[in-house]
Design brief:
195 residues, mainly beta, Elongation Factor Tu (Ef-tu), domain 3, 7-stranded antiparallel sheet, 3 helices, 13 strands, 12% helix
Length: 195
């Protein structure tokens, strides 16, 4: 479990393909604090640390993950958001995030508001019931509040700190991001679908 509060950025050092899997070596200033078999959230995707070498560590994404996320597009030099699993002895500053991406969205507008930024994303309208006005949404692993929610679009506001300390500064119009909808909303939608 995660909170959607990004603690570090990582840079993809290498990408290798083995059958339907992709393995990534990632450089980060938290690499030396990691341990093998630890869960780590990468742009909202929970992956297991498989190996550590100095300031780099290795993770592998299987076909299921590659098909449902933007990891299939990752390349050497890309910067990604990182968060270690939450500790149950402290505050939850964002919201409960599983690291299980529900799908992707496309950035259709990036606005500089002279002190903050607004991003508008379009997503699969079949998931419209999973997002509400002023509800929590996880975008590339970042816990945010959705507003101007429509059938297949929503907006988020990014404060300067978040812009500078996540890969939101690198997101451009047309880019694909990972989405995880609020877990409570998913349970409610599932219960209603069974009635």
């Amino acid at each position: 479990m995660f909170t959607g509060i990004i603690e570090a950025l990582g840079t993809i050092q290498s990408v290798s393909v083995d059958r339907t899997n992709k393995t990534f070596w990632i450089n980060s200033n938290i690499s030396s604090q990691l341990k093998i078999d630890e869960s780590l959230c990468h742009n909202g995707v929970c992956l297991t640390v498989e190996d550590i070498n100095d300031n780099k560590y290795q993770v592998t994404a299987i076909q299921e993950t590659l098909e449902k996320t933007n990891l299939q597009n990752w390349k050497q030099g890309d910067v990604i958001n990182l968060e270690r699993a939450m500790q149950m002895n402290g505050r939850i500053d964002g919201h409960i995030v599983q690291g299980h991406v529900d799908g992707t969205a496309k950035c259709i507008l990036k606005k500089d508001l002279d002190g903050s930024f607004e991003f508008i994303f379009s997503f699969d309208e079949n998931k419209a019931a999973l997002i509400i006005e002023k509800g929590s949404i996880c975008v590339n692993g970042v816990s945010l509040t959705a507003f101007n929610v429509a059938r297949n679009t929503f907006a988020v506001a990014i404060i300067p700190y978040t812009f500078e300390h996540t890969n939101f500064k690198n997101i451009k119009e047309g880019d694909t991001v990972n989405l995880e909808f609020d877990m409570l909303g998913k349970y409610v939608a599932r219960i209603q679908s069974l009635q």
